Amino acid sequence: MPPFPQRAFAELRPTLEGLGFSLAVEHFDHHAFGSVYVEYRRRGQWIRIIWDGKESVLLAHASPAQENVWTDVEAMPGSPPRPFDRDLDDERIERLRDAIERNARVSTREDPLQVSGDIVNTRPSGTKPR
Questions:
Q1: Which residues contact residue 99 at a Cβ distance below 8 angstroms, ignoring those fewer than 6 apart?
Q2: Once rounded to an integer, what is the mean pLDDT over residues 78-95?
Q3: Residue 69: its pLDDT value, please?
Q4: pLDDT at 123
Q5: CB-based contact 41:19 (threshold 8 Å)
Q6: Is residue 5 exposed (0-12), middle (13-18) or buried (19+ Cβ within 10 Å)?
Q7: Which residues of 94-126 are buried (b: 16+ CB within 10 A; e: fewer)?
Q8: The pLDDT of residue 86
Q9: How far from 75 is each of 27, 43, 59, 63, 68, CA to CA, in Å?
Q10: Is 58 exposed, middle or buried (0-12, 13-18, 19+ CB in 10 A)?
Q11: What is the pTM of this model?
């Protein structure tokens, strides 16, 4: 694997761990142009950091846990897909870090149990579970 994705994976790891994610999968595919991804998981959400060896781009995708429906963390809802960000520098890593943090915060607002794992009654008083 080239040095840039190695460095990016190492630099993004503390951010992901700080958001409550744990490393779950490391996958290297020699037959797919040296593509590699690392997958982090936490309750309710998975994030993959991907080095696309064919395109020589660094990406991050997120999926609701166990749904295996991956979306680009940098995509803006309702906007058309953007071209790949092909920068291979510190600023690229920082843009991915910002997008990962933004995505994780949005997911946490949708499911307040994700970050801490604490059991909290989030139903209004007097309502029954569905």
A1: 60, 73, 74
A2: 93
A3: 92
A4: 38
A5: no
A6: buried
A7: ebbbebbeebbeebbeeeeebbeeeeeeeeeee
A8: 95
A9: 24, 22, 11, 13, 17
A10: buried
A11: 0.78
